[in-house]
Amino acid sequence: MSITRRDFLKIAAVTGGVAAASTPVVKSVLALGKKPVSLPQYVPTTCEMCFWRCGVIAKVVDGKVVKLDGNPLHPNSRGKLCARGHGGIGLLYDSDRLKTPLINTGSRGEAKFKKASWDEALGYVADRMQKIKEKYGAESVGLLTHGTVSTYFMHLLQAFGSPNFAMPSFALCRGARGVAFELTFGEDVGNPERLDLQNSKAIVLIGSHLGENAHNSQCQEFAEAVGKGATVIVLDPRFSTAAGKAKYWLPIKPTTDLAILLAWINIIINEGLYDKDYVAKYTTGFNEVSQAVKEYTPEWAEKETEIPAGRIVETARVLGKNKPNVLIHPGRHTAWYSDNVQRQRAVAILTAILGAYGRPGGIYLNPKKKLEPVFLSDKDYPEPQKPAINKGNYPFAGEEGVTHAIVKATLTEDPYPIKAWFITGTNIMKAMPNQRDTLNAVQRLDLLVAVDMMPYDGVMLADVVLPECTYLERHDDFFTVKERSFGISFRQPVVQPMYDTKPGWWIAKELGKRLGLEEYFPWNTFDDFLKAKAEAWGIDYAELGQKGYIDFPESAKPYLSQGEDYKFKTPSGKIELYSNELKKHGFDPIPKYTKHEQPSEGWFRLIYGRAPVHTFSRTTNNPSLWELMEENVAWINAKVAKRMGLKHGDYIVLVNQDGVKSNKVRAKVTERIRPDCIYLVHGFCSTSKLLHRAYLRGADDQQLITKYAIDPISGSVGMRVNFVKITKEV
Ligand SMILES: Nc1nc2c(c(=O)[nH]1)N[C@H]1C(S)=C(S)[C@@H](COP(=O)(O)OP(=O)(O)OC[C@H]3O[C@@H](n4cnc5c(=O)[nH]c(N)nc54)[C@H](O)[C@@H]3O)O[C@H]1N2
Ligand SMILES: Nc1nc2c(c(=O)[nH]1)N[C@H]1C(S)=C(S)[C@@H](COP(=O)(O)OP(=O)(O)OC[C@H]3O[C@@H](n4cnc5c(=O)[nH]c(N)nc54)[C@H](O)[C@@H]3O)O[C@H]1N2
Ligand code: SF4
Ligand SMILES: [Mo]
C-alpha cells in the first residue's frame, strides 16, 4: 500500500519524537493493565536494492523493520517501491548474511574461513597493504567497486597513493551511452536518466525492457505515457513486457540496431520530417550527416535487421509526426557489441534532429543548482608515482575506470603488477565476463579483500572478508538527485547494525588509521560529517532526517524556451551531429554501420536481461524475492523447441563456443523470442555454498560469456557475442 502525501506529513511529524508514554494509545493500553505496546516509528531513508535510490519510509516496531514503503516526497519513488525495494527486509533478516570478519586459512579462494575480530582482520589487511606498497608501490593496490561503499574505498585508495579503481557501471553498463551523449550534447543523460516519459507522444525502446528493468519512477512514467495514448515502438529480439504495451514490436536481428537507426535518420531527413528550426539553431554537422546516411535505405536496412522496409518507413513517420515530443530511450545497460558508442551516437543524432533534447516528452535539461563539493577531508591525495592503468588505452574511458583494464594488468603485469584487489559492493564473478581470466588474475594477487554484506561468489575468493551492515543499518553520504528539480536524498540507520557488522565509512576509516592515514578521516562518526556538510550547504539537517528528501523546486528548468539561445557544453557550444572529437582520435565522426558475426546453424546467440523481482546476482538469495523467483529459465523459440523435441519445463544444459557448460536450467518454450536467440535473466546460479537458497539455482549467463568484444572508443564491453548450443543431457 502506498501512502499519500498527507499521510506522510503526519508520519514525518511522528518520526522526530516517537512513542512518548503520554500518547492516548499507550495510555489506554496501560489503563487496561496490559503490557505496553510501543507505537511504530516511521524512519525515512534511501533504498540501495538497486541504484535508482528511491526514497523509503521504514516502519519499525519494537526495533524490528516490519514494512518498507515509498517516500511520496521523493521523485524517484513517488510513494511506491518496486518488489525489490520491499524486499529490503529480506536482506536485513537473511540468516545467510556475513556476521563477523573472516580470514581464509586455506589456499587462495578455498574459503576455509575462520572468524576474526575487527582488530585482527583490519591489522592483517593493513600489514599486507604496507608490504605490497614497499615492494611494488601503492599503485599495485587495485579496487573493483560499486554502490555507495565506493565513496569510502576510493577515498582510502587514493589517500594510500593508488589511482587504480574501476566500477562495472562504466564498461559493463552505461559507459558507452555517457560517452556518446557527452560527445553529442556535451553531457550524459543522467542517473536517473532525465527522460520526460510522462509527456512523450512516441517512445522508442531499443532493448530497454521497462517493466523487467524495474527502475521505479521510469516505470511509473512509462505506464502514465501508455495510459495517455503514447505510441510505443519496441526494438527487441524478444517480446518483452514493454513490447506488450507497444503498437510496434520490431523483433530485430541482434547486432543490427544501428542499421535501423541510420535508416530512420535517412528517412526523416529525406522526407523533411526533422525539426528544421531546431537543427539550424542548435546543431552542427547536419549536411555531413544528410550525405552520410543516404546509403542507409529502408530496403538495405530490411536485409540487415529482418524488419520489413515498410515498417521501418511507417515507424520513422510516427517519430516525425510526433516531434519534438518523442523519446528515443537512450538505454542504460549499453554494453552489447563492439560498436556501442556509435550505436548510442545514432540514438543521440536521431534525438537531436527530432528536436527532442530540452523539449517536453524528450530529454529534459539538467536542473540549475550548484553546491560546492564537500569532501571527506580537505587533505590532498599524494601524487601517484606511476601512471594509472584503470582506463586502459581507451581515449574516451570514463572517470569510473574500466574493469577489464584492472584484470588485464593483473594478468600481464604490464605496465606494472597489480598485487592486491579490494572488491567492495561488486560480485566480480557475476558482473565481469570471462570468469577464467578473473580466477587466473585472483591467483596472481598477494591480497584479496572483500567488503560485502553477503557471501556471494566473489566474496568466497577473498583472503579477508569485512562484513558491511546493510543500507537499513547505516548512514551514507548524501545523494544529490537531478530530477526535474534538484534535491538531496538522505540515508540514515533505521535499526542498529545486526551481528558484528559495520558501515563502510567505519571500515575505511579504521583501515586508514592502521595505515597512518587518519588525517583523511577527520570526523568521529559519519553523522558528524553529514551535519557539517549540511551546514556548509545551508540545509536543515533535522528536516532532512524527518523528510528523507529535500527539494529545490526553483532549480527546475526542464525545457528550452521558444527561440532561446542555449550553449551546449560541447567544444562548439552546439549539438555535434558530426564529431570532430571522434575524428581527431581516428574514429568515424558519423556512425557507420558495421556487420557482426552471426550464429551458424544449430547455434544461438546468448542474450540476457533483468527480472522485475531481482537485481543482478545480489538478490538471488533474498528470502522474500527468492520466493517470487527461485531460479531463471532459458527462453527458447517454440519452433526450435519442437524441432529439438523439447517441452516447456524440460531441463536443458547450454554449451558455449568454447565448450563451457551451464548448470541445468528449465526451458521456457515461447513464441516470444526470435529463433536465433536464447535469453537468460542475468545473475543466477551462485557457486557459494554459504547461500542456502541461491546455490546452483538456475543458469549463469556470465559463465557462458567467455568471449567479449571491446568498443575501441570507450572500452565498453560487448557481452552479447557468445553463441550457445542446447543439450538435453543433465
Ligand atoms: N553477463 C552479464 N553481466 C553483467 C550484466 C548483465 O546483465 N549480464 N549487467 C551489468 C550491469 S548493467 C551492471 S550495473 C553490473 C552490476 O554488477 P554488480 O553491482 O557487481 O552486481 P551484483 O551481481 O548484484 O553484485 C553486487 C555485490 O555487492 C554486494 N552488495 C550489495 N549491496 C551492498 C552494500 O550496500 N554494501 C556492500 N559492501 N556490498 C553490497 C552484494 O552482496 C553482491 O555481492 O553487472 C554488469 N554485468
Ligand atoms: N529488476 C531490475 N531492474 C533493473 C536492474 C536489475 O538488476 N533488476 N538493473 C538496472 C541496471 S544497473 C541497468 S543497467 C538496467 C538494464 O536494463 P535495460 O537498459 O533496460 O536493458 P538491457 O539490459 O540493455 O537490455 C535487455 C533487453 O535487450 C534485449 N536485447 C538483447 N540483444 C538485443 C539487441 O541486439 N538489440 C535489441 N534491440 N535488443 C536486444 C533483451 O531481449 C532484453 O529485453 O536495468 C536496471 N533495472
Ligand atoms: S527501483 Fe526498486 S530496488 Fe531500485 S531503488 Fe527503487 S525501490 Fe529500490
Ligand atoms: Mo547497470
TrEMBL record:
Enzyme Commission number(s) from the entry: 1.-.-.-
Record keywords, A-Z: 4Fe-4S, Iron, Iron-sulfur, Metal-binding, Molybdenum, Oxidoreductase, Signal
Domain 4Fe-4S Mo/W bis-MGD-type, chain residue ranges per copy: 40-96
A GO molecular-function annotation: oxidoreductase activity
Oxidoreductase is among the record's keywords: yes
Gene3D superfamilies assigned: 2.40.40.20, 3.40.50.740, ADC-like domains (2.20.25.90), Dimethylsulfoxide Reductase, domain 2 (3.40.228.10), Formate dehydrogenase/DMSO reductase (3.30.2070.10)
InterPro entries: Asp_de-COase-like_dom_sf, MoPterin_dinucl-bd_dom, Mopterin_OxRdtase, Mopterin_OxRdtase_4Fe-4S_dom, Prok_Mopterin_Oxidored, TAT_signal, TAT_signal_bac_arc
The keyword Iron appears for this protein: yes
NCBIfam families the record matches: TAT_signal_seq
Similarity annotation: Belongs to the prokaryotic molybdopterin-containing oxidoreductase family.
Protein name: Thiosulfate reductase
Source species: Thermodesulfovibrio yellowstonii (strain ATCC 51303 / DSM 11347 / YP87)
